[in-house]
Every structure is written in structure tokens, then in C-alpha cells.
Amino acid sequence: MSDQRHVVVVRKAEHADVDGLVACSIALFAEDAGTRDPSIDVDWPREHGRQRFAAAIDDPDRLLLVADRDGEVVGHLTGVVAEASAMKPVRAASLVSMYVRPAHRRGQIGGRLISEFMAWAKEQGAELAEVTAYSSNSEAVRFYERNGFVSKSVTLEIAL
Predict the structure, then answer these.
(1) Measured CA angle at 130 (ends 125, 132), to 5 deg
(2) Phi, psi of 118 (to 5 degrees)
(3) Which residues partner with 31 through β-bridges?
(4) 149: which residues sit within 8 A by CB, 6+ positions away?
(5) pLDDT tens digits for 114-151?
(6) Number of Cβ within a 10 Å radius of residue 12
(7) Which residues pair with 33 in a beta bridge?
(8) Contact partners, residue 62, CB within 8 Å, separation at least 6
(9) Among candidate residues 5, 4, 2, 1, the one with its CA nearest the CA of residue 107
(10) Cβ–Cβ < 8 Å for 100, 75
């Protein structure tokens, strides 16, 4: 009996992946914003994710990646590049959303998603890449730091 490992392939998302993207997004919202930010509607992916992901797959200015294990989406990354402006005269790539299912973490899938995002951002002419994470999500912050990101700002808020 052999110990065959299932290969996880990182690739651009296709329309057949939308249900898997929505499922990963639901898990991300529940695990991250759902435990850290009461102002976020954790039902957003259930209600709007399908339309948003389907439209983004067809948008050449957006990147949707999936981590695919035998036809199952076990992770995703979404990104976008913003044009330069008078106030910020550089093209900036934003990593909008990223999630890897807990059973598949620690296997370099996140690093592979980031690597593909960085390559895409450079192809798009971006001069920098950015990502936001909840400050209380120290595991995510450390992950992004290990992948070359450095802290730049802190957002403070108060409920009214």
C-alpha cells in the first residue's frame, strides 16, 4: 500500500470553481471577520459571493486563484491592481482576500498563492503590493510578514 499524496494545484479560477470559491469565502468570513469585526455581514458570501466571483473571473483587471486538490477548492486568493493617481502615483496590487482550509495549512499552499499573486502583479505593472489583516489575527500577520510584507499603517476605530 503506497502513501500517495494528493497534489494541490494553484491555478486561475474558472466558472466551475465558483461554488468552491463561495465555500472558502464563507469559511474565511466565519473564521476571520466573524470573530473579529461585528460590523461585517458574515452572510455576505452566501448572499453575494456567487455573483461577485463569477463577474471577477471574467474581469481582466482582477485575479482569482484557486488551490485545487482533486477538483476540490481548498483555498483561494483574489487580487486587483489600482491605477496610479495624483495622490499615489504608483500602480498598486491589492491582495483582497485569501484563505486556505485549516486541514491544508502548513503545506506551502499559501506561499504558492502569494507567489502567483506577486508574479501577476508584476505582469500588470504594479510597483508595490499590499494586503490588510486584522491586527488581532497574529497568525495572518506573521504569514504575510514571512512572505515579504511589512506593516505600514494601523487603522483605529471606535463604535458610535
Answers:
(1) 155
(2) -65, -45
(3) none
(4) 129, 130, 131
(5) 999 999 999 999 999 999 999 999 999 999 999 999 99
(6) 12
(7) none
(8) 56, 78, 79, 80
(9) 5
(10) yes
10 Å Cβ neighbour count for 95?
23
Would you say residue 3 has pLDDT above 90?
no
Give the chain as a DSSP string.
---PPPPEEEEE--GGGHHHHHHHHHHHHHHTHHHH-TTS-TTHIIIIIHHHHHHHHT-TTEEEEEEEETTEEEEEEEEEEEPP-SSS-S-EEEEEEEEE-GGGTTSSHHHHHHHHHHHHHHHTT-SEEEE---TT-HHHHHHHHHTT------------
Closest CA to 63 of 82, 49, 80: 80
Calculate the CA 64 to chain-centre distance. Answer: 8
Sheet arrangement for strand 72-82: 8-12, 62-69, 72-82, 92-100, 128-131
Note the Cα 25 to chain centre separation in Å: 9
* Max CA pair span of the chain: 63
44 pLDDT higher than 90: yes
In the predicted model, what is the mean pLDDT of residues 3-27?
A: 90
What span, in angstroms and rounded, lies between the C-alpha atoms of 28 and 42?
A: 9
Q: What does the block give as the cell for 25? A: 469565502
Please compute Rg for the chain using Cα positions: 16
Number of Cβ within 10 Å of residue 11's Cβ equals: 11
